[in-house]
Task: inverse folding
């Protein structure tokens, strides 16, 4: 069982890799069209797609931070009555590894569109990491409940992007559609693992935080 120092080093390693190393996908995005069947976008469409995919890339940066922080919290020696929960930490890390594919796909699509990732990624990462730590310290049920609510909100957000992305941008649409399916599955898996339902005000606060992130990341 990893000790606390290992757990902290894991979290630092994950942060540095997310922010400074090009992510490598472990699977292809199954729905991607052949490059030859991907129609050329005009300048305006390209700009819109770049902005939306930047927002989605930030979402995946935050997903890395949340899962990493929640795994760290699960491994942290407990206060009264709480013991480190290695099984939960490993489940969270496994889910985080799937999010690495999303990070790689969104990064690749940003590159293809000639768009840049958000300049504020270190800030988004730090904010999400803090939220994940708080959720993780509230015990396995709440931690998993936070995963369920986050994944559901991301799924709804990706569905809205399928309405907003240019119809011609088949490649971005394919990435978003595949991610949307994956996020729905992540929510179901966390639900089955014993998530508790979060109170409505907490869900509302999470929605507000993500609104700030998506609005700013659209531009910066
Ligand atoms: Fe994701
Ligand atoms: Fe997810």
Result:
């Amino acid at each position: 069982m990893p000790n606390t120092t290992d757990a902290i080093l894991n979290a630092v390693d994950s942060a540095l890799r997310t922010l400074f190393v090009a992510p490598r996908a472990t699977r292809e995005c199954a729905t991607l069209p052949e490059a030859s069947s991907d129609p050329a976008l005009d300048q305006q469409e390209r700009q819109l797609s770049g902005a939306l995919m930047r927002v989605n890339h930030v979402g995946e940066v935050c997903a890395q931070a949340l899962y990493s922080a929640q795994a760290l919290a699960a491994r942290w020696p407990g206060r009264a009555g709480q013991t480190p929960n290695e099984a939960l930490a490993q489940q969270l890390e496994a889910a985080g590894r799937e999010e690495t594919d999303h990070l790689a796909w969104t990064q690749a699509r940003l590159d293809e569109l000639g768009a840049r990732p958000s300049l504020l990624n270190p800030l988004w990462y730090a904010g999400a990491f803090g939220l994940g730590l708080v959720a993780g310290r509230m015990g396995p049920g709440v931690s998993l409940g936070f995963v369920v609510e986050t994944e559901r909100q991301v799924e709804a957000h990706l569905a809205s992007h399928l309405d907003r992305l240019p119809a011609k941008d088949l490649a971005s649409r394919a990435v978003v559609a595949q991610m949307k399916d994956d996020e729905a599955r992540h929510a179901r898996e966390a639900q089955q693992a014993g998530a508790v339902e979060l109170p409505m005000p907490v869900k509302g606060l999470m929605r507000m935080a993500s609104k700030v992130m998506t609005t700013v990341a659209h531009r910066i």
Summary: Residues 63, 99, 151, 182-183, 186 surround fe (ii) ion (ligand 2) (CB under 6 Å). The chain is about 75% helix and 0% strand.
